[in-house]
């Protein structure tokens, strides 16, 4: 008789196999001792096989779907052609979030000046994907190809860097929106943390390594009340998960700069607005509601103080993005190894002229020639900050950044676009 210890820890592995085989034989004989039991077992096995086969076909069709969304000779041809540089000293840029608001504008501006551009976007439904498709159509007509895929797809990113030796990555894909972070926190981690790391991994392994310019946010200043906000101010008091993921992005990009020699430029955008904008943002949803005669909710800060934002017009932001790419300096690494120090920069891109939310509403009312039905409520504790105000002297010195569009002018352009895009043109004119 083997001891208990020997049974648990057999001295020879074969021993347990033989004894198990004997035991299983005895079980088997008992189970199949009658014909009806055998019949039941046969039925069970058939059902099991059928389930397995249908599961396999589901998996196969799934992988066929993913394989079909990118890859293949035709796809590679489109990617290569879109990345063609058509000016001397130009760059080839991978723009993530290219079907997004800022991404589509930056892609178009790069293409128009002769740079090569390949877009990447997952066309998620955070807001109406038909607007993203329309932006894609616009870019397509200018020769910019947008690859449909997710940042977290490391195989896709590796393939893209395989097909094109991108000199730059303009990383604008993100889960945006301050208040939505309370509804869907996971989406912020998926895009702004996991997606960012997957992208940086691809950049660090690429040969040559591209220079990376990416969208941080004014929200990193959080509860900072020193105005105007300067890049050296504290950013360790985020007021929302969105802000926290953007702040994390600044730290994550720093490590890739430090360890792998990636050239990094982080841009803290201040409430960007304009034509082809984001429907989830206040100026956009206010316009929609005013036109439809629906009420708008205007938040008010502590002690009945109006909230204010340093609203920044899209064309100014695009100029800041392009200058950032132009001055980014090279990454130094190769084959995933750092070969020297590379630039690590952070800039505020704001308008440096904050406007209150009620003033934003009056400007919209004057452009739309309609009165808003305002519902004024105290700001809920949902991640908002009372005001933002950018100090842009660093960007002015290093990038030649000089915003030129005030809110009145910028909203006029936005309203004109809105009325035309949504078919309000007939019988309506803008101021
Ligand atoms: O700079 C940024 O980094 C961020 O800018 C933007 O965030 P915010 O500045 O919060 O813009 P936005 O939502 O338009 O609200 C504007 C004002 O209207 C107030 N607001 C909003 C909604 C509403 O129903 N009522 C209201 O009063 C609201 O309280 C606020 O005072 C981007 O969305 C974000 O992705 C990020 O890029």
From TrEMBL:
E.C. numbers: 5.1.3.6
One Pfam family linked to the record: Epimerase
Membrane topology (UniProt): Multi-pass membrane protein
Keyword Phosphoprotein set for record: no
Single GO term (MF): UDP-glucuronate 4-epimerase activity
Known catalytic reactions: UDP-alpha-D-glucuronate = UDP-alpha-D-galacturonate
Domain NAD-dependent epimerase/dehydratase: 93-327
PANTHER family, alphabetized: EPIMERASE-RELATED
The protein's name in its UniProt record: UDP-glucuronate 4-epimerase
